[in-house]
């Protein structure tokens, strides 16, 4: 599931608390949720119109609605969505009845992992269905445009079904000496071929009719209506005409020089295939995988520390070095393998007919060939290493975009481990690889704590209501082997191993030092600092924090601790006690991702937040989303009544800023206003 997508979920639940638990479960897994709840047909109708849900979670014990009735309402609404039944236990008869009455899946409430897996599967399937419809519509539009362009083409083009002409353009009629298409209708295309080439042409048609892939152009003698002949190059492609599968046949009287074509497909620096041709090769490999071809894999290869190396040798030598690097890669290929330049210094390689162990051996051999050799650049000589990431290609991931993403992620994983490493995406070995990566990053995190290798950034929070002083959000980074790493990558591992309280203390201590420095310079500032749920159990944190603030002669209000709404909901009692104790000594608290729950303001009955940071999902395309504008304005109105400040994060354009001001937002924050800057 793409975690940057917002899933719109309609809960048909009798309990708000049960729905909130599922919302928190999803959000704590990094999945954005836009929820609504209904317990009557009127509420369902309103939610279908206003929310436009992707998934409907139905609790059979809701009492006021029957599943069959709900399924009928959803069908009548006409929106493609997934209806999932929520049950507390497995009962074969009951589950059978749920499927019969319209449920697409059944999820077990007491089993969070199964529940998450079902929601993820259904959301992925829903997106696949929607994508299929978009592709079908795009295909129909492409076919319409192709048909419109057919007659304007100077190439002789015909569509052939079971060996007979069903469509031909004017150039085809002119080439073969026919006045109108009726003269060709029902005429075998074989009649257009000279006698000496008829058998070869016939065999080619037979192979294509069995689904074989066109092998390229063939040269033959074509025959006109007056029995005269001419030399032609014929190309084939599978196509459809009026919904029927057919062949597109193109006759060209003049061939482009094969050497010219070959040259146009090559990168001028490396001599490898250029990006366009390499992507075609990947598409071809993906198509072969859908037909059952095995043993293929895509590798992405990059020299380590490329920018540093180029800075050392100079831009004038960069192309020469890249060409030598590409030659080293090409020297390891067999005749069946393919290599091309996919980006500035990223070489893509398609390996064929190799098993898992063979791929790993090839990678090891290539890295040894690169690292063990010397690259001569005029009077300079140097050695370099490489990082390699790849993905094995099979029917399940037979999609060019998915394959490239998997290989890119594997390359980033290899580079993040220090270079001269490789990482191969293999679903069968994913669990083992994840464990290895986790052990590695656990060591990096522990080292960062011991050697002060974390880094703080800040992003200014701008007041729209002329509040005094400066306000900034504190952002954490980790100095990794290949540069700075975002917390979304390492914090889940730190949380799993209970290292987040120690990280929180490091961040708070650094923030206090910077606040003290700003006070001395006459620039009093308020910092918003994220707190993890692990720190709620740290009984010594608040006494330590109180003492540190007093030592620095800072007002406690200059440090605003913040937590996400979903984290607070799942740890409500300890969060409540912690926040009360923090506010008692003068501190302030902010709720992040506010508005993501079914009734976020109800949470304020238990949590006395000073700031409400509006959920970022409402900022996406805000000027075009009337529903989001209305929701933000409603949050601001209720917040003002409760005397709480509102903050809008992830603001990315001037139009959104103006709308937020009109909605009554107190503060705004985002890259449009200021990019995060290193705290110094």
Automatic annotation (TrEMBL):
Record domain GGDEF: where: 294-427
Coiled coil regions in record: 125-152
PROSITE patterns registered for this protein in UniProt: EAL (PS50883), GGDEF (PS50887)
One Pfam family here: GGDEF
The keyword Coiled coil is annotated on this UniProt entry: yes
Record domain EAL: where: 438-680
Keyword entries, A-Z: Coiled coil
Annotated CDD domains: EAL (cd01948), GGDEF (cd01949), PAS (cd00130)
Source organism superkingdom: Bacteria
Keyword NADP tagged: no
InterPro entries, per the entry: CheY-like_superfamily, Cyclic-di-GMP_PDE-like, EAL_dom, EAL_sf, GGDEF_dom, Nucleotide_cyclase, PAS, PAS-like_dom_sf
PANTHER family: CYCLIC DI-GMP PHOSPHODIESTERASE PDED-RELATED, CYCLIC DI-GMP PHOSPHODIESTERASE PDEF
Descriptive protein name: EAL domain-containing protein
Organism listed in the record: Dyella kyungheensis
